[in-house]
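#onboarding

Welcome to the new folks! Below is a worked example of what a typical request in this channel looks like: someone posts a single protein sequence, and someone else replies with the predicted structure as tokens. Don't worry about understanding the tokens yet, we'll cover that in week two.

Example request:
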Amino acid sequence: MNPRPTSASRRVASARPSRVRAFTLVELMLVVGLAALAMAVGIPAFVNARHKAPLRQTVQNLTEVFSRARAQAIMTGRAVELRIRPIDGVFELGSVTGGANVPGAMAITLPAEVGIELLDVNLQPMKDAEEAVVRFHANGTCDLFALVLRSVENEMCMVTLELTTGLARVEHDPQNFMKAAR
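Example response:
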């Protein structure tokens, strides 16, 4: 038979040090070191991505303006003009040739970190012109258009409009700029 433990034997059992499982200092230092290493690798990539953000956002905004101009031309059955003031870096959508303003008109201005390197409309250099006009026609076509943007980090991007469809094409590799312009 098993005798019942007495209060004295319970006190002796509780006086023994209990084995609590915990992390050692070496294990904690290893985890902190790995976290520091991950941050050291990740932070430069994050900073680099943030520096590229102005050019990427500008290209995204421009493709949205081109898409809206094309859609408005097709929906209204009239040519829509995109007016560009290269010196100010302003792209304005809002007028229709021979008609009223475009619903949902919009304008964007290039950020200070992004500049125009090349601007051609119908094979005419317009970078130094006071104003350039790109027309989007009711049948979905548009004027021949090429734009090269450069960021302060020397990153370049080319945006062209496909002549027969009016759709924007974006090229980030300068070696492919000539192919994209065709």
